[in-house]
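Box 3.1 A note on notation
Throughout this textbook, protein chains are presented in two layers. The first layer is the amino acid sequence; the second is a token string describing backbone geometry. Keep the layers aligned when reading.
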Amino acid sequence: MVPTDPYVTGLLQENFFAQKSPVAGRLVVVLRGHLEGRELELIPQPSRAVTAGEVHELVAVDEPKAGPGRVVNRVAFLGFVEFLSGGVLVAGDEVRVGGRVVGRLAGYDLTHMPNHMNLVILTPGALSGEEMGLELGAAVGFAGSGEEREGTHG
């Protein structure tokens, strides 16, 4: 029997994440710049596990339909986050940098794997990290609705 991914085959139609811990990190690079026509292909899976010490890129988009299985074109580069704790990221998680909400996690692009994953964040204006005034060492946090946020995002 050939294994199949239930997200790809459409078997999963509901959110199976009843509860999950927030995931914390710190900003280790602040980026500048924008690209049009980037064609980032977000994978169909809405979740990814991360471990402490991993480093992944934060990419901003302002395309309202951005989400798992979609292609996004208009991107701004925010920075790189080093995860301080392991956990599970889920599309829709609120993303905070330096204590302020920058957007919601839209999905993941694996173009640069195994080096790093692009964590695509839906933001109001797709500004770069430099334009947002992000600072090195700023706390970065990912939390779903209803998760305890105090002390996890800076």
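The longest strand covers residues 100-109. Confidence is low (pLDDT under 50) at residues 148-154.
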